[in-house]
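user: can you give me the structure for this one chain? tokens are fine.
assistant: on it. calling the predictor now.
[tool input]
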Amino acid sequence: MARACLSAPCLHKSRTDTDGLQAIPPTAAPLPQSLQEMKAYVPDRPNIQIWQWPNLLALDAALIAVVWQIALANALELPMSPAACGVLGLSVWLTYTADRLIDVARRPARQLLSARHSFAKRHTRTLWRAWAGVLVVDLTIALLGLRTEQLQAGAWLLSVCLVYTALNQKLSRRFFPKEICVALIFTGGVVVFDAAAIPMGFIIFFALLCMLNCLIIGAMEKAIDAEMRVHSIAPVVAERWLGVSALSLHLLVTIVAPPCAIALSIGFLALGIIHLLRRRIPVETFRVLADLSLLVPATIWLAL
């Protein structure tokens, strides 16, 4: 599910490897806000840190969706089949990977300043082959393991994803509210198989958590999006309000107390903290931390 009101840089030369991916050393200064400085920062053949791999492979988004799906089912005592979890995880991976591959297809490598886009550009053929194989597995599990009403709900959400992808590719060079759309679609994926049984309070707060995640990442990656000529809501939103909004929602969700309120509250708090500390965090590290702010609270809730 992340982008940089960035401080003045102390540029570093990274070591290199054969994958040619952007790597941000754990102790490096945040990426520069200047586009020219950012281009100078990105090495031709950088090192990959182990903590980058889940994001590079789009595994983090799939894991976040499945963990929240299971946490919500446990909170409401709803049955949750392995097939539903598998279909959700694989479908999220397919969606994120396809979106990323389409993003880089018509853009030269010099425009791709993020590690995930560089990776997708360099390994396009391999990722598309993996995507085709995962699609077959996903469809097989869905047809054999889901109920008819779950298949219908999944087909409806799939149509929404296809419309989103088409509109995003067509309109993003001018303006497209990507962060809102991604938050709503991601929320829909988590609740789609049991939507009628899930309280609206959870749906609203979880959608807000996802949207805030997208917005603070978008704010961090403004220079990256500018180079790709992507225009969304994040650059329009005043960054000073994102931290305030996160901390306010952290308090509000504890008062409203929807299902998984503790996990939601921790998620808002974590996003607020890392946003307030954004000037001290490298952009690639920031994206990973923003996604961990969604994953860890639900995992903690399940463990309690």
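assistant: here you go. The chain has 13 helices and no strands. The chain has one domain: 35-61+81-303.
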